[in-house]
Amino acid sequence: MSAHPSLDPSVVRWSVPPSERGDRPVLVLLHGYGSDEHDLFGLVPYLPERFAVASLRAPLAPQWPMPGASWYPIEGLDGRDPDAVTAAAHAVLSWVQDAVGPAPVGLLGFSQGGAVALQTLRVAPAAVAFTVVLAGYAADGELPGDAVLAAQRPPVFWGRGAADDVIPTALVDMTAQWLPAHSELSGRVYPGLTHSISQDELDDVRAFLEARLEDLDAHAQA
């Protein structure tokens, strides 16, 4: 695996200033291909207010003329190198270790950001409390953390549109087999939804995140 790129901490968007973060749980947003840290930040009003939300910018530039940033290169619909996804996951993990500290961390990613969110969980199961994957997928191959996930089954939400033709069918099918064996899976396939996010999906995500807050509270009281 190649050396992972580094993320620029100066462009991270936070929902609350440093003085208000304290020990609040942190939800990290990972945008899709050709986007940036401003895109998913628009979801903040739909998410539980208790989270301190951090929206990251991917470290790479997509091929011209695509604007924005990317987590890993895409060469055609089928050109997704698992090693590049893992390198991006290590970049996210490094940022989390530097910027968040001991606070509980969850990841929410869209499209290739969803793939990176899930890959980060696979790289470091102990560092990620839960993952939300929207229109994303599980990268091919095996990682050392997969055995840990199969035993511990952390909470994962996977939402995708029935009309999404961006993620290759083979990756969707593989993810549908991989996730039940490695997570406490919840989620939904949304009729008519393309490669995007719907209000119904946001409602389901919010319910999932509220349940994760309840889990954190129960763990703190144990």
UniProtKB/TrEMBL annotation:
**Family per record:** Belongs to the AB hydrolase superfamily. AB hydrolase 2 family.
A Pfam family reported for this protein in Swiss-Prot or TrEMBL = Abhydrolase_2
Which keywords annotate this record? Hydrolase
Question: This chain belongs to which protein, by name?
Answer: Esterase
Which residue numbers delimit the Phospholipase/carboxylesterase/thioesterase domain? 19-211
Source organism (scientific name)? Microbacterium testaceum
Report if keyword Amino-acid biosynthesis is assigned: no
Q: Which GO terms describe its molecular function?
A: hydrolase activity
